[in-house]
Amino acid sequence: MPILDERSLEFHSHSPEQTRRLGVRLGELLKPGDLVCLAGDLGSGKTTLAQGIARGWGALDAVTSPTFIVINQYRRADHAVLYHVDAFRLSGEAEAEALGLRELFEEGGPVLIEWPERVQGLLPERRLWIGLRWVDESRRRVHIRATGPRYEALMRRFRRAAFGG
Question: In CATH, what is the architecture of 3-116+129-163?
């Protein structure tokens, strides 16, 4: 597990189950207003990681890729909402803005965005950016970058929770 600096971390996940478990650890740490960007090619594990994050956060609903819906909402027992956005089919930032993407950041619930590079100009600068890369059939390379004090603290807590370090 290379720690690239205080704001970044890189590791390999060796199975979809491990990717979900790492997502659970991250989801347990999310607070209202957090933004987690999930970038990577098709099949790199973005939705698998999102499933774990939502489970760790406490979502009562099953997590599926919101590709055709664009924005899914998952609720917790306390009625809090986690937003899961898939920007893959959006034509660009104007369409994302028309759908209310900026407002989601103000709604209070954590926001997960798959394909964030397609709407990067609308995203707050302070965020957690997770890049996933396909290594082979079962392994994925995961690179996490924290921008801003809140996300740097989140990264430290995630590192301890997931890797004990």
Answer: 3-Layer(aba) Sandwich (3.40)
